Amino acid sequence: MTLPRTPAFALQGRLGHEGGGVWRLAARQASIGGSLLAGNFLYDPRRQPAMLSGRLSGARLLLSDLGPAVGTPGEGAASAQAPAGERVLPQREFDFRALRSMDADVDVAVDMLDLGSEALAPLRELRTRIVLEGGVLQLRPLSARVVDGRLTGFTQLDGRERPARWSARLELADMDLAGWIRSVRKPPARAASESPAALQQRRDEARHTPAAAAQAYLTGLLNATFDVTGTGGSTAQILGSLEGRAEAHLREGSISHLVTELAGADLAQTLGVVVRGDRPLPLRCARVRAQVHEGVLVTSSAVLDSRDSTLRASGRVSLREETLAMRVTARPKDFSPLALRVPVLVAGPWRNPEFGIEGRGLARRSAAAVALGALVAPAAALLPLIERGRAEVTDPCAP
């Protein structure tokens, strides 16, 4: 029988043996690591290959308790601190021989799926059907509640091919970004309630209360589509060969005023925000489109537009090398007496990216400032640093 390796477990239920080697299990309660599960199963070895069918339910499933089945080290992985320099994506090879030794058809209904990260809220109301037939593993259909939004779609891993082929189409609908990705919240708000009512209240406050303090760097309801395929024998290999597309947009969103000014290298406005206190800026629109080829995600369009500025990002994220190289430019809409107006750069390995500003733009402005200061008057040196602001005429998020 093909089952994932798990931590130590305790099971209460009834196990029955029938003619022909058929086994039935009625598990009232199963504690597996930190997971709390139950279910009813039938194992029939008379079929070739043998068949496992039934229903898995429970209050809590920890992703780390599945261990090698999802390519992670297993028990303790969630809390273990990886040494510097190690890869982020799981490198462990999947056991494809075991995948082909048995068929399965199991319905899954789990109240909570803990992703094993403090940075992400768990998935709830996980529902799917696991079908394993002839070495092809499918989760179809797949649905879950993500904070107050929904995740739907399907995934398939075809173990018959060499290398194995993975495909997925996933859609996120109206997921509260700051509710799910806790790391975009400011530290005091990271322990705040994640109930739909509380999240709605915080979104409304960020958009409609100008004097409210920013509780998150970015908020809004995220809608996204991912349509990708990859090949390989591990999670890292599959993602490192990924092909496909991704698209996302935010509605009812806001962005931190401080983040906006830092992205535009606006020294005067940044100082003003620091003194006054950070406030959320309502977003007019926010959209990202990207293509993935050979494990490298390249943005074709990435825009965040507020009344203060239009931010645009371009660059590459390598799933193969686990590195990124992004360039963020800002188009201010308001006046500033001291703005460098140079692109901000984010580059390096995922574990330790570096932030900086583009040297060419800074050099041009510095040279202009020095020349004016020497030829005209010291005060004229500030002219290249003055930003008059330019309003957007068209929708920056339009295709």
> What best-fitting shape do the alpha-carbon axes yield?
elongated
The description of the largest β-sheet is: 17 strands, mixed
What's the rounded overall pLDDT mean? 84
Number of domains: 2
Estimate the helix proportion, in percent: 10-25%
Number of helical stretches of at least 4 residues: 7
**Strand-pairing-aware structural class:** alpha+beta
Q: How many beta-strand segments? A: 17
> How far is the first residue's CA from the last residue's CA?
51 Å
Which features does this protein show?
399 residues; alpha+beta; 17-stranded mixed β-sheet; elongated
Present the secondary structure layout:
Layout: E1 9-17, E2 23-32, E3 35-44, E4 50-62, H1 96-99, E5 102-114, E6 123-133, E7 136-146, E8 149-158, E9 165-176, H2 177-180, H3 196-208, E10 218-231, H4 235-240, E11 243-256, H5 257-263, H6 267-276, E12 280-293, E13 296-306, E14 309-318, E15 323-332, E16 344-349, E17 354-357, H7 359-375
Parallel strand pairs: 4-5
Antiparallel strand pairs: 1-2, 2-3, 3-4, 5-6, 6-7, 7-8, 8-9, 9-10, 10-11, 11-12, 12-13, 13-14, 14-15, 15-16, 16-17
How would you characterize the overall build of this protein?
The protein is of the alpha+beta class. It is built from seven helices and 17 strands. It has helices at residues 96-99, 177-180, 196-208, 235-240, 257-263, 267-276, 359-375, and strands at 9-17, 23-32, 35-44, 50-62, 102-114, 123-133, 136-146, 149-158, 165-176, 218-231, 243-256, 280-293, 296-306, 309-318, 323-332, 344-349, 354-357. It has a 17-stranded mixed β-sheet. Helix 1 (96-99) links the parallel strand 4 and strand 5 (102-114). Helix 5 packs antiparallel against helix 6 (267-276).
